[in-house]
Amino acid sequence: MTSSALQTAVTEIAEEMAAREDRGDVASYIPELGRIDPRQFAISVVTRDGEIACGGDCDTAFSIQSISKVFTLTLALGIAGDRVWNRVGREPSGSPFNSIVQLEREKGIPRNPFINAGAIAVTDLVLAGHQPREAIGEILRFMQFLADDDAIFIDRNVALSENATGFNNRALANFMKGFGVLENEVEHVLGVYFHHCAIAMTCRQLALAGRFLAHNGVRPETGYSVVTPERARRINAIMLTCGHYDGSGEFAYRVGLPGKSGVGGGILAIVPGKASVCVWSPGLDVTGNSHLGRIALELLTSRLGWTVF
Ligand code: DON
């Protein structure tokens, strides 16, 4: 495929998405996200040889929300290795992202690191007895390093908004603390969790940050190894099976790539060996995943023949 063919596909998809009326609903349970204009759309694709194809609002920063969980999992695996899997499983939950029902039956061990309970348990491992601000800084610097962009920031208003309304996450965290799954203070863990969910990035920055997952753990432009090939493969596997909560089967069926969504409307998708892709459209479907983002990825993969299957 020529580089112009990729840019043409991306431009056409951005134009098709801009024309659609069906946009889904923005996530109003975090009041600050409820104010986002749902008419925005962006797509960025970064290929192995460094080509970047962009369409729509790809330099507009948005709240990455649960997409941050891919990167906190990567950090936690670096800190604790396979001990991560004593605290959290790696099976799809089949339940909504904020569900609590399985936690009691499964002794406070969340099904996977991407549902809220699992991500809170992973955040506890990243916190690892440090001050919350140190852990927040470490996560932010990791994102800046991966995207090669120091301008990436945390949207304080989103973090405060989620802190003020995070009753479900407090319930999940306290429940896990009761089972002895969290080591740090609940409010410290949640403080770090709310802040990493509130990282603001553009589609271009997120696609750049995902490169190591597309290329066996290596940032291809520098040859720098972020994680081992085995670890990159495993993170991709969990993205494929759990990255869209109870919409994970549908996403695999329609898009056929590892992906991770966030309620800010972003999706990071990985085309192993080929590209890292980010799409953003703030309106969500009933499973809390970007409505037009998923449709755009389905168009991209079918037009370019990109799939892991
Ligand atoms: O904890 C929450 O509810 C949000 N900070 C993150 C949820 C999320 O992004 C789910 N993704 N689709």
Automatic annotation (TrEMBL):
Binding site for substrate: S66, N116, E162, N169, Y193, Y245, V263
Catalytic EC class: hydrolase
Recorded catalytic activity of this chain's protein: L-glutamine + H2O = L-glutamate + NH4(+)
Alphabetical GO biological process terms: glutamate biosynthetic process; L-glutamine catabolic process
Gene3D superfamilies documented for this protein: DD-peptidase/beta-lactamase superfamily (3.40.710.10)
Assigned EC number: 3.5.1.2
Origin superkingdom: Bacteria
One Pfam family hit: Glutaminase
Keywords: Acetylation, Hydrolase
GO function terms (MF aspect): glutaminase activity
Keyword Acetylation applies: yes
InterPro entries named in the record: Beta-lactam/transpept-like, Glutaminase
Family: Belongs to the glutaminase family.
Subunit architecture: Homotetramer.
Protein name: Glutaminase
Organism: Fulvimarina endophytica
